[in-house]
Structure formats: C-alpha cells, structure tokens
Amino acid sequence: MSAPALHLSDVQKNFGPTPVILGVSLDVSAGSRHAIIGPNGAGKTTLFNLISGRFPVTTGRIELHGQRIDGLPPHEINRRGLSRSFQVTSIFPRMTVFENIRCGLLWSRGYRYSFWHLLGGQRALNDAAARLLADVNLEARRDVPAGLLSYAEQRALEIGITIAGGADTVLLDEPTAGMSRSEADHAVALIRRITAGKTLVMVEHDMSVVFDLADVVTVLVYGQVIASGPPAEIRANRAVQDAYLGVPAAGSGVGIA
Amino acid sequence: MSESAVRTATRPLAAEGAAGLLRREWPWLAALTFAVIVPWFFFDWTTGRHSGFIVSVLSQIGIMIIFALSYNMLMGQAGLLSFGHAVLLGLGGYVTAHVVTAAKGGAFPLPLELTPLVGGLGGFGFAIVLGYFATKQRATAFAMITLGIGELITSCALMFQTFFGGEGGVSTNRMTGHSLFGLGYGPPIQVYYLIVAWTAVSVAAMLLLTRTPLGRMANACRDNFERAQFVGYDPRMVRFVQFALSGFFAGIAGALYTLTYEIVTYDTVAAPMSANALLMTYIGGVGVFAGPVVGAVLVVLLQSWVSLLSNSWLVYAGVLFILMVTFAPGGLAGLVMMHQPIWRAGRLGRLAGPYLRLLGPVLLVLVGFVLAVELCSFLTIGTAQGKTLTLSRITIDPHGGPPWIVAGLLLAAGGLWLRHAMRGLATAWQAVTEEIKTPELRA
Amino acid sequence: MEVLLVSLLNGLVYGMLLFMLASGLTLIFSMMGVLNFAHASMYMLGAYFAYSVSRVIGFWPALVVAPALCGALGALIEMYALRRVHKNGHIAELLFTVGLAFIIEKAVQMAWGLLPVPYRVPAALDRALFHVYGSNFHAYRGFMLLISVLMFFAIWLLLTRTRIGLVIQAALTHPEMVGALGHNVPRVFTIVFAGGSVLAGLAGVIGGNYLVTEPSMAATMGPIVFVVVVFGGLGSLAGCFVASLIMGLVQTFAVVLDVSLADLLARLGVTVASTNPLAEVLTIPLPRVGALLPYLMLILVLLIKPRGLMGTRDT
Amino acid sequence: MLAVRDLHAYYGKSHILQGVNLEVRAGEIVSLLGRNGVGRSTTCKAIMGLVEPIGEVLWKGKSIAGLRADVIAHAGIGYVPEDRQIFPTLTVRQNLELGQKRAGRFGRWTFDDMFALFPHLRERQHNVAGVLSGGEQQMLTMGRTLMGDPELVIIDEPTEGLAPMLVIQVGRFLDEIAHRGVSILLVEQKLTIALKISHRVYVMGHGRIVFEGTPADLAANEAVRKENLEV
C-alpha cells in the first residue's frame, strides 16, 4: 500500500498562550475524498494552514506521499503537488479573471520566472486556461477584473485557481460557503469532476455536500479529532452530535440533517 | 492593455501582424514620430543648429521616461515602494563614465551606440547585489532598506575618490571616435537621436515585459502575495528578478545621462533624484503602463520651464503632489481612465461644459497663487540675490502693499468661483455615471 | 579615559534629542500606519519659531510658544488635509507628507532666507556646568538632557496613567472598536498628530541652537530619525528609546575614534598595500565614515529582524 | 426601537447586503442566523456605522444611517465584534474602563457587576489583556461593551471557538442582561442558544432576509433550515 497522500502525526499548534490544535493525527489515503467537519472555531482552517505551510507547526510531523513537508515554505509544498483554496476568498482582484486562472497554470507549465516568453503567443497555455474558465463557468466574465465579481463567482474563481496547477492533492476550505443551493450543486459537480483520481481534502459546513461527496469524514472539535470514518458511521455517532450542537438542545429537536 | 493579443494570435499572423500592431499600438508610434520631428521645429536656419535649450530638455525627457518606467516596474507593477531608485540610475552612469573613458583611451573599441547597454549591465549588476538584500522584505521594511541604501551610496559617492570621484564626480568625453554609423556625437542633436532610439527600445522592452510570466506574477504578488505562494511562486524571487531587471533599465537611463552631460556626480544617486522618480510616476499614474511617460514629460517640462523663471520649484512640486494625492490618487492616466466608461458610452460631451466652466477659476487661482509665491520668494531670497520680480517688464516691488492685495483678491475670488464650478462638475459627473450603470457593476 | 566619559555624555545628549524627535514619529506611525516625511520639517519649524519668538520675548517663553505653534500647525494639517487623504490609501498619505516637506522647506527659505539663522544658546546657560578630567561639560547640554528626560516621563505617564492615554493606546491598534465604544477617534488622531508635532517642535527649540538652524536641517535630520524609528521597531516607544540612545552613542563615538579598518588589520599583522583596489575603502578613517553608520545598521537590522529591535508590526 | 429598512452595503464592488429589513423592539431578544458569508457581520457593521450603509437605519424613530460609530454608540447602541478586538496592551480593568462613555460614570453596570457575571475576570483584572484565553477574551469584550450602558447590544457570534462549558456561560450572560432591560440583536451560528432565548428570529440568505418568525416557526420550517442553515 503506497504511503498515504497526507500523513499527520500528533500535530500541535498554539497561538501565544492559547492552544488551537491539540495533537491531531490523521491519514488521508491517496485518491480518497476526505471531509473535515466541526463547529465554527474548531481549528479546521488552522489545520489547513499548517498542512499548506502558511503557519509553522508548533510540534508534530506532516508528510506528503511519505516526504516530510512541515517547515517547508508554501511555494515548495505547492510545487510538490499540494494546492489549497482559502475560506476568505483570496484571488488577484486587479487582474482579469482569465489572468487569474492563467497565473495558477504558469508554474506547472514550466514557465517559472521567465521574462522572455510572451504570454499572448503561448497557444497551449491560453487554451488550457480557456478550458478551465469554461469548467468554472466564468467564460462570460473573462476580461472582467476579478475584484468586480459577485461573491459566488469569486468562490468559483478561487476553486479554478486552486485546481489550475494540476496538483494531485487538493485542499478546499469551505468551497460552497455563501453559495445558493443551485450554485452549490454546480460547484459540487465541478469538484467531483475535477478531482477525479486525485486526493481531495475539504472543509465544509453544508452536510448535504459532505455526505454527497466525501468517502471519509473526520470531525474536529475544539482542536481535537473526536471521530473519523465513513459518513454513515459519523452520522450515527452520538458523541459527534453532542459535540457539534454544543449543549444537547432541550426540546428544539434540531439534529444533524 | 488587456488580452486582445490572444485573439489576434489565433488568426493567421502574417496578414494580421502589421495592421494589428498599428491598430493597437498607434499611440506609441505617434509619440515616436513626434519625438523624431519635434527638434526641427526649433531649428535656427541661420546658424544651422537646433536650439540648445530645447534639445537638452528633450534629451532629459527621454532619459526620465526610461527612468520613470523602470521605477514603475517596481511601484506600479510589483507594488514595491522604493526610496532609493536613483542609486541604480547613478551607478549605471558611473560605470558608463569609467567604460567610456577607458574606450577613449583605446583600451577597447566600444561603439558609443552600445554604451547604454554597458550602463544597463552595470545597473543590472548592482541591482542584483542591492536587490538581494532589499527584496528580502516587502512594504515598509523594503521601503526603509531602499532609503538606507540610497543614503548609504550617496555618502559613499561623496567620500570615495576612485570609483565615485568624491564631490567633483566623474567626468568623461563622449567623443570616443568609435561609432557604428561613423557619428562623432559632438553636437547634442546626435546624442538626442541616440536617446530617442534607446528610449523606444526600452519602452517597448518594458511594455513586453508586462506580458511575460514574470511581469504577470509581479502583478499577482502586488495584488495578493500569499495567493501567489500557493500557485508555486516564491514572492521573494519574483521581487528579486523584477528588481534586477528594473536596475537594468535604470542603468540604461544612467548611461544616457552620462553621455548627455559627460559628468556624473553624487546627485544622480541622491534622495532628490529618487523623489523625482516617485513624483513623475505618481503624477503620471501608477496603475497605467503609460502613466509614468506622461508624468516624466510633464515634470521635466515644468521643472525646466519653472526653474528658468523662479527658484521656488519645490513649492510648486509640493503643491502639485498634494493636489494629485488628494483629488486624483490614480494620477493623470488614472483620471483619463476614469473617463473611459463614459467615453465608451458616448456621453463625454455632457462633461465638456462643466470642464470649460472650470477653466476660468482655475486660471485665476493659479495666477493668484504664483503671484503670492513669487512675492514671498522675492521678499527674502530675491533681494539676497539682487534679482527683482519683473512680470512682462513691469517690476513689482514685493515690499509694497498693492501686489499682495491683488494676489489675495485673485486667490479669494478664484477660490470661491472654483468651488462653485467644481460642484457643477460633480453633479454632472454623478448624473452621467448614474445613466450609464455599466452591466459589470450591476451584480 | 576622559574622552570616553565626555563622549558618553555627549552621546547621551544627542541620543535623547533623537528620541524626542523619533518618539513623536513612532506614535504618528502606529496611528497612521505610514511614516510622516514632514516630521523633520516640524523639527525645523520648531527651531525657526524659537529663533523668531526668542528675539521678541526671550528664550524661556519661546520654549513653550514654539512647540505650541508646531502643535497647532500639526492639528490643522491633520484635520483639514490629511484626514481627507486617508481614504486614498497609505501611499497617498505618505506622498502627502513628502509634498508637505517640500513646501515647508521652501517656505522656511522664503521666510527666513537661505543662510543659517543666528539662533544662539541663551546666555544663562552658555557656560560650563562642571569639569570632568580637564574638559568641561557645557551647561546647555545638561539642560537638553533634563528636558528630554522630563519629556520621556511625561509621555510615559500620559500614555499609561491618563484616560486619554489609554484611548490613544487602544486607538493605535483597534481604531474601529474604540469608535464603537463611543470615543471620538478622529479627534484622537488629531491629538496624536498635534502631540507628535509638539514633540518635534520642542526638539527643534532645544536642538536648533545646539546644532545649526538652517533650511537643510530637516533634510539632514529626517533620514536619521527614520533609521532610529525603524531600527527600534515600528510602533514601539521602548524600542525607539533604546535605538535613539544607541544611535546617539554610535554617532558620537564614531567622530572621536580616529581609526580605520587598515589600522585594525595592521594590528592583526595584515598590511594593506596602497595598490590594493580596496585601499581607499580600508584606509578611510572612522570619523569620515560616521555618516554611513546609521544606514549600515538599519540595513543590517532589517535583514535579521524585519520588525526592528522591539517592533510589533512590520507594515 | 431599532428599525432597518432596505439596507444595502458594498465591499469595493461586490454587493454584500441586497436590501435587509429587520426590527428590534424594546426589551426584545432577536437572533440573526445564516451561513458564513451571507452578510450577517456586514449588517451589524452597517448599523454601527463601521461600513457605509445605503438605506434606512432608524433608532427610536431617528435616522442614524451613516453617522460616525461613536455618535451611534452615544445614542445607546453597543457592539460586540465577531473577532472580539480586545486591547492587548491594556489591562483587563483598563479595557473595561474604556467601555465607559465618560470617566467614572456608571450606568446600569459597575465593575462589581462585571466581576459577578465573570468571576474569572476579577482575578485577572490587572493582567494585560493580551494573555487572556479565547473564552476570557469573549467575556471581556462583552463586559466592556456593557460598561457603556447601552440600551441595545449587537453581539456578533459570541460562541465562536468556545468550549461547550463556556457556551453555557455566554447563554447565562445573555439571560442576565435581558433581565436588566437591555435588548439584544444576536448574530449566531449555533441554533441551540438562539432558539432557546430569542423572542423572534431572522434567517439571512444571500444578502437578504429569507425568514422571519418565532423560534417555533423556524423549528417547524424544514425548507428554510435546509437551504440556509447548516448545523
């Protein structure tokens, strides 16, 4: 069995005095679709920031396909095939939508820091960018500065940039946040199609998206993993429901959908 | 300069090539032809020579265009605010001076036409050394390191003799006798055309640079350096390469400076020159590629014309800066761009009226302000230098009452009228923008 | 030995003067988030106002009037101009102060002429305070030290013990929240900007006659104050205090120690041949290199610790 | 007491609030629920004048839209931000002091009330606020806003990132201030608290209010919960 796409062993993170991640150990097998759920402020985004190298780990190890990546700068990790999106949309606002997507492609197509290639003439690159633009359904907004897009369109662009680099491990942080039902459905279909054969790790609040897409679900509460397994098992898990609702609500009868 | 180039590339290149280039880049070609023919308007047929003042101003404009554009490679393209860009210009100039002197001494037959390349490589080399340290940081820390480097090199220039020639600087003689076209480069007009050639080459190169992977990633790092990291680019390396290339073009400007004035002193590396780069680029417009060109032309013209008449250029530059920063942060090019949606919707005519009404009060305030400034300046500095304030042959006594009253009146009346006209313009602008709510803005 | 003690004292005096200038700049930076290029101009104005006022009503009243004038000017600038530029972003604010510095420099030349102004140390303090090992310590330097130390405690007490001080400290990091709690934040910004100008003005009053009062004094002092503020750590008063002292001592000792790199190498047994291309660099004596040191230190510290000695924020 | 009609707001060019209408009557507890990114925090900031509001915001019949935040605070509205924004360099007690509109003027709440509500803060009152834990910071920011004696408190996601035990304490805090006659506009993620203590509930969809009613109505309305709320 090849090394897991992602292997976390006893990862801890403190911000000043307050511990945020209290020893998380997690394996994501290659090619699997893994969802991380948990109440607001449980440390999901912080975990993504540790894996992607945005924040240094306080203690513990993170491995990508068996190679240690904790401590590497984000661009090194990205070049090894791990790409991530952000919970708070992070795009290039003053560049057009087409250019945003193309920036995501540049490194993987080997252009590196070239100042001798004229991008206008790079037919293969531009066609690939155009295809991606169609995938994320933003063709109509091709030459619009990304800052002018609506919230949901920016989220779609965010996903486009993340998958542009062709990374085999994709981390998506609340990809459907703020989207309407129809927009979310389209995004889910896109994610399914684009990450076929790749390893997907996703933070998501919308339970229908989670149970629709994920084959493994990990529940993170207050910086600790309290359960991990196939969706059906998690849904039935009593501890998860309590932790999730905070105090078991008396009489409101609202459980996990 | 949006990505229309992509569409033309898909059609057969040969037939499209020339026409497409012309259609898209006509402003640049028009500017180039203008630069070539303008000295001949000032040609004195009797003596068979061009007016020295005009040629020197035009040469300075050419040099400053390259310098301002190289500065905008950092500020506008990569979002890096540098307070020491003059260092790259000056060092390029010093290198050229030494190389030209060596070439004249017969060490190696370097044609003068290629010396700007030498200056460029000098600038490039120093930019790599200085850039290695400066681009480790960004934003304020970067700005402070460049300020430090600027002051450091300026002090060195004053102190060390061998390379910088100390207070006196390094002089050289451009007539090395080596030239590709057999030109002696004695008369300044020949140097001017060399400058025009190099300016055209540099502008084209920097324009194309904005369409390369590095150029685009520099914009990406400006907008959101964290996202750039997550698409595989090390923002520090992007800043470093961009800084080095910017040093190359600043070096070319430095070389042309040396060829024009045949002397390089510490003020080519000092803070005022860096402030000049900032002034030209910001007033021209940081967000538009051609902005710094407009800024360079305007600032050089203003500077050379005003310094002829008065010695308070600094006040005018300061006021110009403050007005631009408060009312037009996007610079002149930014202002023009703001009118683009209205122009595209064909409603620009509606604004013509308010703009014309604006002209009167602006002139009034301008005259009042200049009068007041000149009165003050002649009150103290003028008397010290024994000059008197003459306005079209009427000598005005700064100590007397009336001139001050006139200045005060002009300013007050002009100010009120201006405020009224501005309000008129604002309402007209509001009405027009309301009408043409472009589809993109409607979410 | 006595050279050491005297230079130590002089270094302290110069350091404290730098602190008075730099402290105002650090406060304004933590509030505006951008460096105020016109701060050294306020220092210059303080000296010139003191010169004019002291000629009319004497040095002691000028000690109060001149900084007050600078404060008033600072308040006007913040309220009627800087506040409007705020919405155009940090770079616009910074360039506004650059334009302002241009105007003030020229206005001073117009008002007081191009040549240095004879702004002298007041007679009462123009004598030796005490002798140390044969050379005497000038009374005026003692006075400067006294004023700057008093100023240091005044700022410290104001910021930590008074309500307005707490509001300022809070507004420096969370202006929006302070507003939402019912405090008039724009007024706080004006107070901080005016306060910074008062400090710079006061530094001008007591520094102007000690050094030289001339139109280019802002341009010479400006970069050094930037170095101190950034070296100490942007936004940190304590860092600014330490950095000012270090800079004061370095500048003073550099002038005193007449030694060059070549001498040091010679002590290590390496003689520098005059033909060696670096000969000039190695043989240049320290006093002449004094002007370089602050910038060398700035670049070094920014590379090792981008936030400076005790900085809290880097942009 | 507070009436918001057809409120719009923009961040740069993106149109976040697309016509929000809501009301809070005297002594009432109203909850504002909805997904991340639908504009709940923006609504609070627009009312508080921290973001430029386009539309009508009436406080006791008088329009306060677009006034400066401190003027609105003086009118009697308190605001507890989602990211707490405690003043790290000041002590806990000094943070509370800054909550008071005038020096030494105590409205309904004195220091002792605060320390009674949050015993933890009494021992830590002279510590610098920067070293407090997440929960303690949440208590401090709520206490600080109360010190200004507001008639209406807008609280943005007080339970975010808090351990279950602390969530209970926040619930108790909300009950306490309601009893002392302070109206509350609560923006919350967890349905538990919101449904338990609110008189009325709004649910926000895409920059717009998509549901208004009592907690019981919401519990019964499967569709709205499915579309707009995640658990």
Give an account of the 3D structure.
The complex is a heterotetramer of chains A (257), B (443), C (315) and D (231). Chain A has a single domain, classed as P-loop containing nucleotide triphosphate hydrolases (Rossmann fold, 3-Layer(aba) Sandwich), CATH 3.40.50. Chain A contains 9 helices and 10 strands. Chain A has helices at residues 44-51, 74-79, 97-106, 123-135, 151-164, 181-194, 207-213, 231-236, 238-245, and strands at residues 6-15, 18-28, 33-37, 59-64, 67-68, 82-84, 169-173, 199-203, 216-221, 224-229. In chain A, the strands form 2 sheets. Chain A has a 6-stranded mixed β-sheet with strand order 6-7-8-3-9-10, sandwiched between helices. Chain A has a 4-stranded antiparallel β-sheet with strand order 2-1-4-5, covered by helices on one side. In chain A, α3 crosses α4 (123-135), α3 runs parallel beside α5 and α5 packs parallel to α6 (181-194). The longest helix of chain A has 14 residues, at 151-164. In chain A, 48% of the residues are buried. Chain C is mostly helical and 315 residues long. Chain C has a domain at 2-215. In chain C, 72% of the residues lie in helices and 3% in strands. In chain C, β1 (128-132) and β2 (135-138) form a beta hairpin. In chain C, 50% of the residues are buried. Chain D has 231 residues and is α/β, with parallel strands linked by helices. Chain D has a single domain (24-47, 70-228), classed as P-loop containing nucleotide triphosphate hydrolases (Rossmann fold), CATH 3.40.50. Helices cover 37% and strands 26% of the residues of chain D. In chain D, α3 packs parallel to α6. The mean pLDDT of chain D is 84. Chains in contact: A-B, A-D, B-C, B-D, C-D. Chains B and C meet through α6, α10, α12 and α15 of B and α3, α4, α9 and α14 of C.
Chain-wise SSE layout:
The complex is a heterotetramer of chains A (257), B (443), C (315) and D (231).
Chain B: H1 4-10, H2 13-37, E1 43-44, E2 49-50, H3 52-78, H4 86-104, H5 115-134, H6 139-159, E3 170-171, H7 188-209, H8 213-229, H9 235-261, E4 263-264, H10 271-284, H11 291-309, H12 313-327, H13 331-338, H14 340-344, H15 348-385, E5 389-391, E6 394-396, H16 402-435
Antiparallel strand pairs in B: 1-2, 3-4, 5-6
Chain C: H1 2-32, H2 39-57, H3 59-85, H4 90-112, E1 128-132, E2 135-138, H5 139-161, H6 163-173, H7 175-180, H8 185-208, H9 217-232, H10 237-256, H11 261-267, H12 279-283, H13 286-289, H14 293-304
Antiparallel strand pairs in C: 1-2
Chain D: E1 2-11, E2 14-24, E3 29-34, H1 40-48, E4 54-59, E5 62-63, H2 69-75, E6 77-80, H3 92-99, H4 111-117, H5 119-123, H6 134-146, E7 152-156, H7 164-179, E8 183-187, H8 191-197, E9 200-204, E10 209-213, H9 215-220, H10 222-228
Parallel strand pairs in D: 3-8, 3-9, 6-7, 7-8
Antiparallel strand pairs in D: 1-2, 1-4, 4-5, 9-10
Helix pairs in contact in D: 3-6
